Structure formats: structure tokens, C-alpha cells
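Q: Second attempt. The first request was missing the SMILES, so the protein and zinc ion are both included now.
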Amino acid sequence: MIYFISIFIFFIAQAQDLEIPDQLKKPPMAENSILIADDKAVTPKSIILIIADGAGIGHYTLSYYANEKFSPSHFQHVGLVATHPNDGFKKVADSASSGTAIATGQKTYNGAISVNDRGEPIETILEIANRMGMSTGIVATSSVTHATPASFIAHIDSRKKEAEIARQMAKSNVDVIFGGGANFWSDDIQEILRDNNGQYITDIDESHNPSKRIVGLFNEGPMSSHSEGRSPTTTEMAKRALSILDNNTGGFFLMIEESQIDWGGHSNDPEYIKGEMQSLNDLIDMCLQYQLENQNVLVILTGDQESGGVAIHDGQEGNLDVQFTSDYHSANFVPIWASGPGAHFFDAMMDNTMIGKQLIKYVKNR
Ligand SMILES: [Zn+2]
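A: Got both inputs this time. The predicted holo structure:
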């Protein structure tokens, strides 16, 4: 009997202690430190969408008590998002179906990259933005061919076909693609990129011909984690992407994925989550500073689904006892935060498809 109980406990609650620096052991006061109040009459000219893959309430709570700063409190609006796929009775999404919902405004099955359940391609917000004369880009700390970034560019029945996803990315009209995953970009695919007005770089500081599209891959596999010294950092990649995209007076759409918060959830590792949430805080600060200088930009932060079923409890001596209910995703709602023109819409409970639908509306009605 004890054997069965211990197995039960093992699967239900994986607890991990997270040490908290002394100066942070007394909880901060929740403070409202909004940087920009929006004007409801204005439609955004440009959009920055940050996807914190896997980040649910538990991950933000961990960050609130364990990181030196908590940058999401600078957003004016907060809502909640249901992330389920269109996949039988399933409530738990993967990054392909939930990425597709955000990128296209339509539900699909787990594993699908911007195709519907009949396998037909669904136009993504990047494709629509390109048609409307905007510049477009994606940044990810996973391989760029991984499910979330892939959903914004490629159309394919399975997220596992990453070489084909790279080929579609090489042929696409997307102006900036930064992240990891060079091992999916064979010489053949790099040639397809060059034939489609693209330049390939492996160093973030490499110069760029401004008339060309740019693909920058800075690691063979995924980027290193934040705590292992990711280089370039998520913020450095996003900054370079913004400096290229905002040359277009017609506006831009940039999706930046902090991909590895999700992997901290999968591996039930609070230190991993803490590091990635720190990277996210730095990214938010940079994006909101950019917004202060460019007030026609909408900045949104959300997750594609929750990862790890994370809950925060009191540990020993002011440390956090971080508990996990899964080494996969959960169906828990994820928060959405927004600031700038058009941000008030996200002050609500919504289905993840409503994010895509609304962003597409903004892109079409500028
Ligand atoms: Zn995941």
C-alpha cells in the first residue's frame, strides 16, 4: 500500500525547493507601475507579440518572488486565455495547435502547423502583414523551426518535419528570422534562401544588406539557456530585429518567443524557469522602453500554453517550494498582458483564437 501511495505522490506532486536570496525573502508589494496608458481610438501601426512558451500563473508567481524584478507589472491590461486545441475532447494544447491559434485565429489539432483539421493551409498574421506592406520578423530561443515560430510562417501537417519547415521559411517573405537550429538549414536550404533574396548570418553583429531578408542562426541546436549564458541574449536578438524592421515606414509585426520557459516546466526545474523568466523580464523592459519611444506600437505578452502544472508553496526558511503536477503541459489558463494602442481589447477572458483574430483585424485596419 505504501508503495502505491508513494508512486501516487511521485506523479501528482513533484516538489523542488528554490532558494531565494535573503533580500528577496520578504515579499514585494504588488505595485502598479504602468508605463503607457492607451488611447482606445488609435489602431496600432506596429505590433510586438512576445510569446512566453509554457508560462502560466505559477511561472509568473515564481518570477514575482524569485527574480530581482517583475517587469509584467508595467503592462496596463491583463486578461486570461484558454488554450485548448480542436482535437477530440482534449483540453491540453501543444505549441503547434496553440501557436496556430495565435498566428491565424483558428483552432486546429495538436501537432498541426497552420493547417486546419483537413490539412488545408490557413493564412498567418505574418503573411497578412506582409500583404499589407508591413515588415515581419520572428525571434526564438529554440530552433526557429520549432512549433511556435513555425506556426507563424510554415504550413504543414506535422511539427516534426523541421527540414521542410526550414525550406518553407527560406522561401517565405519574412524579413527577419533569428534564433537557434542551424542544423536544419542545410546548404541546399541556404541556397533556397539566397535565391529568395535572403542573407544568412551566424553572428548577431554581422552586417546586413538592408534590401535583403535576413536569417540569423546562432547555434546548431536550440540557443543555450539564460543561466548557461545564452549569446546573443533574447533581448539582443530582439533589439537587432527591431532595428531592421522599423526602417519600414509601413510598420512591422514582430513575434519574439522566450521558448525555454516551457522546457523548465517539462524538466520540473525551478532554477531553469527562474533564469528564463529573468530573460523574459529583460526582454519586456527593452520592448516597453522601445514603446515609450514609439507610442504607435502595441506590445502583447502571452503564453501558448502552461507547462508543468506549476504551483508555488512556502519552503524552508523563506525559500519557495515549487510543485509540479506534470512533466508535460496543463490546460490551466495563461495570462495575457498588453500595453499601447489596441491593448484594451485584451483586458478580458478569451479563447486563444481571439488573440489571432484581433491582431489580424489590427493589421488589416491600419
Ligand atoms: Zn512544451
